[in-house]
Design goal:
The complex is a heterodimer.
Chain A lengths: L6 H9 L3 H23 L2 H17 L10 H21 L31 H19 L2 H11 L5 H8 L3 H18 L4 H6 L2
Helix pairs in contact in A: 1-2, 2-3, 2-4, 3-4, 4-7, 6-8, 7-8
Chain B lengths: L17 H8 L5 H13 L1 H18 L8 H13 L4 H9 L2 H14 L1 H37 L7 H6 L10 H11 L10 H7 L14 H12 L14 H15 L2 H6 L10 H10 L28 H13 L3 H14 L1 H8 L3 H8 L9
Helix pairs in contact in B: 2-3, 6-7, 7-9, 10-12, 11-14, 15-16, 15-18, 16-17, 16-18
Classes of the chains: A mainly alpha, B mainly alpha.
Chain lengths: ~200, ~375
């Protein structure tokens, strides 16, 4: 059955014009890719644009795709490069702190204040909301090299070897970046370490 | 192993075997290596504490919620994927398709344009009709030609049938019509001056001989007789009857006689008068077995009239009749001798029995006297 086929088989099928194969690929990877991009760039609107651009490049590059290449490596290389380019463009703009006022008005809140919440949030939900904001903030404070490695390993469950292929550095460099990313996140989230112990 | 300052992230004091500790954390060590590292961590409180801190970081991020991408993006991407689907399969489709699929794809422009389809149908019908017409004409011509060549000459006396006094030859029915059809088909109306009847009457050798062309006035006369609605007797005869062939020969013999004289003698008044009538006869004739329809021009008339060194006994016969009508019996006898010398059989069957010549042939020889 086509739905159970490997990514590479589906991509070859799409090369032959099978749009259904591409639909399965899109369904299978759109959410992890979107979250990778979202956590990389920190903006949902930008993440949507980059997600669309990522798969458009897959479509355009389908004819040149070779089965020997691992599809996820190719896919996340595209997404990662788009994120890096976006990040570099953003550096030319004034860096905006997550806890800086969103406008010049005195009563303006911070980005942390716009995280969705429910009317009747329990204490745990409120804590979780705060934790989510802090996690995003901690990720944003990582360097790009550390962040991409951490996101790919932690959320995409990519082996260090594959991450090395995507990033284009030796595997040990990836591990080193991962180690420093973990250390930095630990320092950023030290106040929540007890919460982590309480998590189910 | 130290990684300090190697990738720009060396701000944290380097623990021992930091990368190995990360590999242990994410389970990317080989089993024996993992066991060895685990034993080492267990005996090293610093490394154990470091590994614990990493695990807690991971636990925190495990609570990080995933977000769903908007469905509109998915729809847009699918539409784009369908529009820009790679070409190889599309290009390969016709080659992999069967003959029927190729035929259908070939006809697709016609099905999409009704006017073009109608025009193509018209051309197809006209083409088939043309081919059938040509093929049918060829068959008729070939049948006629073969019949005309293969049939033996009639054995009966043309003069007998011409006068209607003799029984028709039962051995020469339909082929005569076929032969006549060939003559008619020549487009030169040879029967107008009696050539067609002569060829049907003579043997194959004599068919090559023909009298010179008659004056135009005679031809016109023959045509007028046809237009007057005079039909041959055999027109009313049943198909394949001996009467038909006999009448044909009789008609031929009628043509041997100058029309002016025939009319004057009262022999041609109610009878057939000329090749044009033969044409008419051919048109009205019941369908023969071998040649159901008039054949298109195919067989040219034989150039018998131009054969050098041959004496045309019919011509002599005609001249003798002319002489007899003028009471030039000496000339009649002289011509009779020539006819007998050249074709004793014809002389016996036709010439000697011609009643118009009897008065001269029976009279004693004397010097020709003109009126």
């Amino acid at each position: 059955m086509l739905r159970d086929e490997a990514d590479e088989v589906l991509m070859v099928a799409y090369q032959k014009g099978d749009v259904r194969a591409f639909e399965i690929l899109l369904t299978r990877h759109r959410k992890p890719v979107f979250n990778f991009i979202l956590r990389f760039v920190g903006s949902r609107e930008t993440a949507e644009d980059l997600l669309q651009e990522t798969f458009l490049r897959v479509i355009k590059g389908a004819e040149a795709y070779q089965r020997q290449a691992k599809f996820t490596t190719w896919l996340y290389t595209i997404a990662r490069n788009l994120c890096v380019d976006q990040s570099r463009r953003a550096k030319h703009r004034k860096a905006q702190s997550l806890d800086a006022p969103m406008s010049n008005s005195a009563d303006s809140g911070t980005l942390l204040d716009v995280v969705p919440s429910t009317e009747i949030a329990s204490d745990r939900q409120a804590v979780n909301k705060e934790l989510q904001a802090r996690l995003h903030e901690a990720l944003a404070r990582l360097s790009e090299e550390q962040r991409e490695v951490f996101l790919m390993r932690e959320f995409l469950d990519m082996p260090f070897k594959d991450i090395a292929d995507v990033v284009g550095v030796p595997e040990n460099t990836v591990k080193s970046r991962m180690r420093y990313a973990l250390e930095k996140l630990r320092l950023e989230l030290d106040e929540y370490k007890d919460m982590a112990k309480a998590m189910p | 192993m130290s990684a300090r300052g190697r990738d720009g992230g060396g701000e944290v004091p380097e623990p021992m075997a930091g990368e190995d500790l990360v590999s242990l954390l994410y389970g990317e060590l080989e089993p024996d290596e993992a066991a060895r590292m685990s034993a080492r961590v267990a005996t090293d409180p610093t490394m154990s504490a470091r590994l614990g801190e990493m695990r807690r970081v991971r636990e925190l991020f495990s609570a990080m919620d995933d977000e769903e991408p908007p469905n509109r993006l998915t729809a847009q991407l699918l539409a784009e994927a369908a529009r820009a689907a790679p070409q190889p399969r599309r290009a390969a489709a016709p080659a992999e398709a069967g003959l029927w699929a190729r035929f259908v794809s070939w006809l697709q422009p016609l099905t999409q344009r009704p006017a073009l389809a109608a025009a193509a149908s018209l051309v197809l019908v006209a083409g088939v009709a043309g081919v059938l017409y040509m093929k049918k004409g060829d068959e008729l011509t070939s049948t006629t030609s073969v019949t005309a060549r293969s049939e033996p000459p009639p054995a009966s006396s043309p003069m007998d049938t011409a006068t209607g006094s003799a029984a028709a030859d039962p051995a020469a029915p339909a082929p005569v019509i076929a032969a006549q059809g060939a003559q008619d088909s020549s487009g030169t109306a040879p029967g107008a001056d009696g050539d067609g009847a002569e060829r049907a009457d003579e043997s194959a050798k004599r068919e090559m001989e023909s009298p010179p062309a008659k004056p135009v006035a005679k031809r016109k006369r023959a045509a007028s007789s046809t237009s007057s609605g005079k039909n041959m007797a055999y027109d009313k005869a049943p198909a394949g009857s001996s009467v038909k062939s006999g009448t044909v020969y009789g008609l031929s013999e009628q043509e041997m006689v100058p029309r002016e004289q025939a009319q004057a003698a009262g022999e041609g008044g109610g009878g057939p008068t000329g090749g044009a009538s033969m044409n008419k006869k051919s048109d009205d004739a019941p369908a023969p077995q071998a040649a159901p329809e008039p054949a298109p021009p195919a067989t040219p008339p034989p150039a018998d009239s131009k054969a050098p060194g041959k004496v045309n006994v019919r011509d002599l016969h005609r001249r003798a009749v002319d002489a007899a009508m003028d009471r030039r019996c000496a000339e009649v006898k002289m011509l009779a001798g020539q006819v007998r010398a050249n074709d004793a059989d014809y002389y016996a069957k036709s010439f000697a029995g011609d009643k118009r010549l009897q008065s001269c042939l029976a009279s004693p020889s004397k010097s020709p006297a003109r009126k």
